[in-house]
Amino acid sequence: MESRQRSNNNNNRDLLRYASMGTQIFVALGIAVFIGLKADKWLKISAPLLVLLLPVLALVGIIYKIVKETSKQKNGDAKN
Predict the structure, then answer these.
(1) How far apart are CA 51 and CA 33, in angstroms?
(2) Who's near 22: CB < 8 A, 6+ residues apart?
(3) CA–CA separation, 33 vs 37, rounded Å?
(4) Do 24 and 6 touch, CB atoms closer than 8 A?
(5) Residue-range definition of the domain harbouring residue 57
(6) What's the rounded Cα separation, in Å, for the pair 55 and 47?
(7) What's the confidence (pLDDT) of residue 12?
(8) What does the alpha-carbon distance between residue 17 and residue 74 come to, in Å, rounded to a whole number?
(9) pTM for this predicted structure
């Protein structure tokens, strides 16, 4: 019975962690697009260069962060 509660707690924790990662991705992309729009207008660039470039850079940064966090977690699991 106790092991079932632990697995449910772990599942809930994982679900919340992945939901927060998804939220971070959407917020980061939204902010990157907004900043790109404002920067393109401010720099008077006719093509939406920064609107495309900033979200790509945000995605690269987020993917790097996720890989770094998950590899750290796996290393911590291997030690236990």
Answers:
(1) 5
(2) none
(3) 6
(4) no
(5) 2-79
(6) 15
(7) 84
(8) 15
(9) 0.72
Per-residue tens of pLDDT for the chain, all 80 residues: 566 666 677 788 888 888 888 898 999 999 999 999 999 999 998 889 999 999 999 999 999 988 888 887 666 655 54
Q: At what angle do helices 2-43 and 49-79 cross, to 10 degrees?
A: 160
Q: What domain count does the chain have?
A: 1
Q: In this structure, what are the phi and psi dihedrals at residue 51, rounded to the nearest 5 degrees?
A: -65, -30
Torsion of CA 59, 61, 65, 71, to 10 degrees: 90
**19 CB burial (10 A radius; 0-12, 13-18, 19+):** exposed
